[in-house]
Write a structure and sequence with these properties.
Layout (H helix, E strand, L loop, with lengths): L4 H4 L5 H5 L1 H9 L9 E10 L2 E10 L7 E7 L10 H9 L3 E5 L10 E4 L16 E4 L2 E2 L1 H16 L4 E11 L1 H10 L5 E7 L6 H5 L4 H12 L19 E2 L1 H4 L15 E7 L11 H7 L4 E6 L12 H17 L3
Parallel strand pairs: 3-4, 3-8, 7-10, 8-9, 9-11, 11-12
Antiparallel strand pairs: 1-2, 2-4, 5-6
Length: 328
């Protein structure tokens, strides 16, 4: 089953896309109108010098209060707008909530690469050059960097209680939140639902090893560029993965380092995209801090966004309440 991960990647991360049917009109409409009981604003997060588009949600009744905070990360080819329904639920539960688009996705700007040698450099280190944007590719190292920078950004927000920061991730980003928590002691609680925790098989098994190494060599020799934006090279999944980054990404190996963090794992009993034993179950076993495992019965991967969606929200809120609110 472990070797089925490459096949699983045909669909992984689409879980957050599945929410799009709920918010399709909102996502397409930049003039999104939140409910009357929720404060909403847009913001800019700088990640490695690139602008990321963000949205903030908070309960309207606590305009000046410091609030426990949840930073939400979208999955494979999702966008922040897909997370609006859950962000609203969490805000109503008393949290400051941040959602954002990774660099190169949604409303965020793109990372750029030089396509010709740079021109003369001025005294203030400026120069002219031709550049190409890197857009809608899946790079878990870049994405986790963006999530880490979102944590740093919200740490500077006036309404954020700096001692009560949590992360939320689902499907592919379910691993991202643990990866970041293992490296950032500010993160006190995470929720990983139907999570994938190991991308190495995608890059190194089932005959992929030579392709991964060859592409990495060609890219570093300047012989291979980045995939076209939104390329569908794995099934109908939007966004081509960078295999050389996939082979570096295994948050299942990091989870024990997040001992300061209370981690909730919510798995689908009938998970069909990968073997839970190599992902959520192994991560839960290795976690050293406060932890809880919930296996939602009778659902497959996408059931967490459909029939079990309300249950997943309730589980997340109860976990955050226990570990970000209790005793405060």
């Amino acid at each position: 089953m472990r070797h089925a991960f490459f096949t699983a990647l045909l669909s992984i991360g689409l879980g957050l896309h599945m929410t799009a049917f709920v918010v399709a009109q909102q996502a397409a409409n930049p003039s999104f109108n939140p409910p009357a009981d929720v404060d909403f604003k847009t913001a800019t997060i700088m990640s490695e010098g690139t602008r990321m588009a963000a949205e903030l949600y908070a309960p309207r009744t606590s305009a000046d209060a410091k609030l426990p905070t949840i930073v939400m990360a979208h999955g494979w080819g999702g966008v922040a707008a897909n997370l609006r329904p859950d962000a609203i639920v969490f805000a109503r539960a008393g949290y400051l909530v941040v959602v954002f688009d990774y660099r190169g996705w949604g409303a965020s700007d793109s990372r750029v690469v030089l396509t010709s040698p740079q021109g003369p450099r001025s005294k203030d280190r400026r120069f002219q050059a031709e550049v190409l944007e890197v857009r809608e590719v899946v790079d878990p190292i870049d994405q986790t960097t963006d999530l880490a920078n979102a944590v740093s950004w919200v740490y500077g927000e006036p309404r954020c209680d700096r001692e009560r920061i949590g992360l939320w991730g689902s499907s592919y980003s379910g691993g991202h939140v643990v990866y970041v928590a293992a490296r950032d002691p500010r993160v006190k609680a995470t929720v990983s639902q139907v999570p994938a925790f190991d991308s190495r098989p995608t890059a190194l098994e089932n005959g992929a090893r030579e392709k991964t190494f060859s592409e990495a060599a060609a890219r570093t020799h300047g012989e291979l560029g980045y995939p076209e934006p939104g390329a569908r090279v794995i099934g109908n999944l939007r966004g081509a993965p960078l295999l050389e980054k996939m082979m570096q990404y295994a948050p299942v190996e990091d989870v024990a380092r997040a001992s300061q963090c209370a981690t909730l794992f919510v798995l689908a009993e009938n998970e069909e995209l990968f073997d839970n034993r190599d992902h959520g179950l192994k991560a839960h076993e290795r976690a050293k801090g406060p932890k809880k495992l919930v296996i939602v019965p009778n659902i497959k991967h996408y059931g967490i966004y459909l029939e079990a969606r309300k249950k997943a929200q309730e589980l997340a809120i109860a976990w955050y309440d226990e570990h970000l609110k209790q005793g405060k």
